[in-house]
Amino acid sequence: MKPEALIQSNYSRVKTWLTKSFKDPYFVGVVLLLIIGTFLRFYQFPNFVTFLGDQGRDAIIVKRILTFEHFPAIGAPTSYGQVYLGPFYYYFIAPWLLLFNFNPLGLAFGVATISIFFILLSYFIAKHLYDRQTALIFTFLITFSVPLILLSRFSWNPNLAPVFSLITFYFMIKAIRTPEKKYFVLAGIFTALLVQLHYLGLLLLPVFLYMFIHKKIKASLKNVNLLWFYLSFLIVNLPLVIFDLRHDFLNIKNFIKLITLPTGSENNVIGNIFSAFMSLNKFSLNVLWLPLLILLSLIVAYFILRRVVQKDQYFIYLVIIIFGLGLYSGQIFFHYLGFLYPLYYLCISSLLSPMINKSYGKLLISLLLISYVIINAMNYDFLYKPGFDRIKSAKKISKLIKDNVTVDNYRLTALPEKYAATPVSYFLELYGRRPIELDSIDQGDEMFVLCEKKCKPVGDPLYDIALFRPSKIVNEWQVDNVKIYKLIR
């Protein structure tokens, strides 16, 4: 066939497929949700991208990977408990920094792009697990979800947990339904990757063990398949295993302390379970008024328990995870539950979907979904509030320091939190004026201190400043809302 004829033939096929597809309301619905989801994740993007201490640290590490300077075997420490994650996130997101020519906006752009893929993936996975109707409701909830939108608009290791959680859950289901070795291996790999994004992903391990035992009771499943799952999980996490062996099981000890150390007068597991479920509803449904939150949580809990009694497996998985959260006694932030949002939205979708076929069902579902959009839209700050380009600001500060540092060996820190200086350190490193590493014992010959609030750097007990022992401020500048001080001994 001639090239012209081949092109014409393919064009006709695509045209026919599009004509047929746009007559399908589900196809149109998914396309519309994809367009809306893209808008909600990219509108006013540079002005609302978070670029703080964690993002600056990650950008430095990824930059050093791309320049072949250092290849980390462990990831970032958790914000509470100092438990180190795996290094997967750094390597996975690195191509986006290279694609944007080392502009850290590329890291956030990569996360946002993956979240768009997540919307599409949500529909196909939910359709596979349930039906098209449930899948469309599920995709709708994912598209407008405030926590998922917030997580998609900047770069941070927990932000990809919803994506990898859904993929992990899918391969777990495939492994049980189609007991082939490859699905157990894939389930193990993606579980390990999820855990490297956030340790609460470990709660999917008892879920998978329950899946396996439940299926084995009803049908023959080879125990060797479960071995393949845990073996692949272990291999992917091998860098962390080696790290723990070399450091007297530091990670395991800190992790046990993290989940068992009470933060109040008593570690009440039942209370923790109720608190976790309340937090899940508060964040996933964006219900902030306490009386309404309690009422809604009780209503949802009733329907969940009904499905559990009916032995609906997905709801049993949800309950296992919520009970697992009861072991954690600390405060739950919205990003902690990133791994759980997909399963929770899926369960809610399966509760709503059958109502459509009942009298007044479509009207009721429409009202509920419209209310969901309105409640969530109230927290779309990027639609109503002025933004602040933190990347641009960090770049301006770094140029000022570059032009005013007179020695090669100098320190940079910030008050009150020293790691807030890492975004500026990133650009200084790009400019070839790398400051001394934070926590280094090298005193340095000059020091720059960044303050977003009123501070007195001379005499401050912060480690970096106390080590440098400054005697006076020789210069100071103001860039945006940051005061910059130059200190000498």
TrEMBL record:
Record-level Gene Ontology MF annotations: pentosyltransferase activity
Localisation: Cell membrane
Domain Glycosyltransferase RgtA/B/C/D-like: 87-242
Keyword annotations of the record: Cell membrane, Glycosyltransferase, Membrane, Transferase, Transmembrane, Transmembrane helix
CC terms in the record's Gene Ontology section: plasma membrane
Keyword Ligase listed: no
Keyword Glycosyltransferase among UniProt keywords: yes
Alphabetical list of InterPro entries matching this protein: LipidA_mod_glycosyltrf_83, RgtA/B/C-like
TM region(s), chain numbering: 25-43, 105-126, 135-154, 160-176, 183-213, 225-243, 283-305, 314-333, 363-383
Domain of life: Bacteria
GO BP of this protein: lipopolysaccharide biosynthetic process
Topology within the bilayer: Multi-pass membrane protein
Name listed for the protein in its UniProt record: Glycosyltransferase RgtA/B/C/D-like domain-containing protein
Organism phylogeny: Bacteria, Candidatus Roizmaniibacteriota
